[in-house]
Amino acid sequence: MGQPVRGHSDIFLHHVAVFSIEDSRQVKSEDKGRPIAGKSKFIILAADFFALEAQHALLKVLEDATSNTHYFLITPQVEKLLPTLRSRLEKMEIILTRISDKAGEEFLALSLPERLVFVGKLIERHKDDEDSGLLKKEVSELLNSLEVILHKNLHNASYAPRDIC
């Protein structure tokens, strides 16, 4: 737990059944420092349940987060999070049975340079949009697809989280 995702030293994945105060402390230590390989650092916290004391500690971590550090909380029980914690998050509700993982599989099949080209083309396609709504929608669908793949693979006993990248 709390190990960088293979292939990227700025992405940390924590996946536990119950997120504890110790997990929050580890996240706090990972939040310190600057990104190593890129401009941003990503900390992904996936748990079926976030313990109350861990939420309080996590709230403090989020309030004092270093710049360019982005947090993603993945849980099936958003309503069980403290209201003060929820107020600092943007909720993305994912219904796993309705989302295709085809886009994510195609994206993951690309090499890193091809992924960068893909993202560049995506942005270029929407450069003349009057607002960023269509770009946000397309990016959201891709991220949802990647999350579906992550969710499926995390529950596959033969899969190790470091195998994502």
Portion of residues in beta strands equals 15-25%
Reported for the largest beta sheet, the result is: 4 strands, mixed
The chain-level mean pLDDT equals: 79
Q: Regarding quaternary structure, how should these chains be classified?
A: single chain
SSE series:
EEHEHEHHHH
The largest sheet has its strands arranged as 1-2-3-4
First-residue to last-residue Cα separation: 16 Å
Number of E-type strands: 4
Shape: globular
**Which ranges are low-confidence, i.e. pLDDT below 50, for 5 or more consecutive residues?**
159-165
Structural class: alpha/beta
Percent range of helical residues: 40-55%
Q: How many helix segments?
A: 6
Radius of gyration: 16 Å
Break the fold down into its secondary structure elements and pairings.
Blueprint: E1 3-4, E2 11-19, H1 21-31, E3 41-50, H2 52-63, E4 69-74, H3 83-86, H4 102-109, H5 112-125, H6 133-154
Parallel strand pairs: 2-3, 3-4
Antiparallel strand pairs: 1-2
Describe the protein's architecture and organization.
With 165 residues, the protein is an alpha/beta fold. 43% of the residues lie in helices and 16% in strands. It contains six helices and four strands, in the order ββαβαβαααα. Helix 1 (21-31) packs parallel to helix 2. 16% of the residues are buried. Mean pLDDT is 79; it is low at 159-165.
Offer a concise description of the structure.
The chain has 165 residues and is α/β, with parallel strands linked by helices. It has helices at 21-31, 52-63, 83-86, 102-109, 112-125, 133-154; strands spanning 3-4, 11-19, 41-50, 69-74. The chain has a 4-stranded mixed β-sheet, with helices on one face.
